[in-house]
Design a protein that fits this description.
The chain has 329 residues and is of the alpha+beta class. It has helices at 3-15, 22-32, 39-47, 51-72, 93-114, 131-140, 181-189, 194-201, 256-276; strands at residues 77-79, 82-84, 157-161, 176-180, 219-222, 226-230, 240-244, 280-286, 302-308. The strands form three sheets. A five-stranded antiparallel beta sheet has the order 5-6-7-9-8, covered by helices on one side. Strands 1-2 form a two-stranded antiparallel sheet. The structure holds guanosine-5'-monophosphate and zinc ion.
Length: 329
């Protein structure tokens, strides 16, 4: 065993700190290529692990090129998910080589003539979104389209901006959502869609509503679709309200991206409270939906209420206390 082998093995087994599959994938590419690979080769190796891209091209194969070559032109045959050239065995090695060269020429000429345009259907996200952010958005969406709900196993999901970059929307995760390529394409191409109404609806505010008109200095956290601020009449010190920017009465009117935006601020505020106050040992999170449930301000809000040991004699039951004599059981 060489020292070099040992040091590489040690690196792979003991020292490699992975935040993605990239490191072992790159090392593997170098190893199977005699120790050298250019950026393009490494990128192709990384791409081969990107299931969303593979799903997309599997779909294109089945519904487009596979259909054309098999059903329309009778050039290929299909048996389950295997395509074949029926008389391939009758071709000589030379003939195969020549046909491959002809295909390469056709590809090169087509690309030369049409340029990068031919991939434009892939750039429906108008700005680059880092892979880690894409992953985070897909994870948050539980790998389902946030508009129609279809699973990523059935359709490729794109990560897309809610408020478009061209309208000042940021690359923050709160401004991103996972959409299947059908919803995403329709969103881009249609001009009178419900979806555009949804986009516009994020701007809805109510001139009479105190939460729509919060003085900016009260805001402690904010993202694209939600805001956090301290409650004016705190139940405990640090009592925080998290609201959607859009004026809606309660939780049940929220769109999924707003639920996500609120969720993200709940986590941020909780961490911030914990970092600044080591007496906090628990939280109540609650929403009053409807007057009969105790709601007084009719702009959806989540109460994030820090709790501390001994802040009341018998905390048992917590939010069950909405009906005081049923709090404990
Ligand atoms: P609800 O009873 O509707 O669930 O909660 C409304 C919350 O808003 C209450 O906890 C109340 O203390 C808080 N609140 C009411 N008015 C104001 C205000 O003007 N500023 C702030 N920061 N909080 C308010
Ligand atoms: Zn409002």
């Amino acid at each position: 065993m060489t020292d070099y082998f040992k040091s590489l093995k040690h690196y792979i087994l003991e020292e490699m700190r992975m935040s993605h599959i990239y490191q072992p994938a790159m090392l593997k590419e170098l190893l199977i290529n005699g120790g050298k690979a250019n950026v393009n080769q490494i990128a192709k190796r990384l791409l081969s692990f990107d299931q969303a891209q593979i799903d997309y091209y599997e779909h294109r194969t089945k519904t487009m090129v596979g259909d054309v070559l098999t059903k329309k032109r009778n050039i290929t045959k299909k048996d389950k998910d295997i395509y074949s050239l029926p008389e391939f065995d009758n071709l000589s090695e030379e003939e195969v080589k020549e046909l491959i060269n002809l295909c390469d020429e056709k590809i090169d000429k087509y690309i030369e003539k049409r340029g990068k345009e031919i991939w434009s259907h892939r750039d429906n996200a108008s700005a680059y979104i880092p892979g880690s952010t894409q992953y985070e958005v897909l994870r948050r969406a539980k790998r389902r389209c946030e508009l129609c709900g279809i699973s990523a196993d059935d359709k490729r999901l794109d990560v897309d901006h809610i408020v478009p970059r061209s309208k000042g929307g940021s690359n923050d995760i709160s401004n991103l959502q996972a959409l299947c390529y059908t919803c995403n394409q329709q969103k881009g191409n249609r001009d009178d869609t419900d979806f555009r109404d949804i986009l516009k609806s994020y701007e809805e505010r109510d001139a009479e509503c105190i939460f729509c008109n919060l003085p900016t200095e009260r805001i402690i956290e904010e993202n694209e679709l939600a805001i956090a601020f301290r409650d004016g009449f705190p139940v405990t010190e640090g009592h925080t309200l998290i609201i959607p920017k859009r004026h809606v009465a309660d939780y049940f009117e929220l769109h999924q991206p707003e639920v996500n935006a609120i969720q993200s601020l709940i986590y941020k505020c909780r961490q911030d409270l914990l970092d600044n106050d080591n007496t906090i040992s628990g939280f109540n999170i609650g929403m009053n939906c409807g007057e009969d449930a105790g709601q007084t301000v009719f702009h959806c809000h989540v109460h994030l209420i820090p709790r501390r040991k001994g802040d009341m004699d018998e905390p048992k039951g917590g939010v069950r206390g909405v009906i005081p004599n049923k709090r404990t059981y």
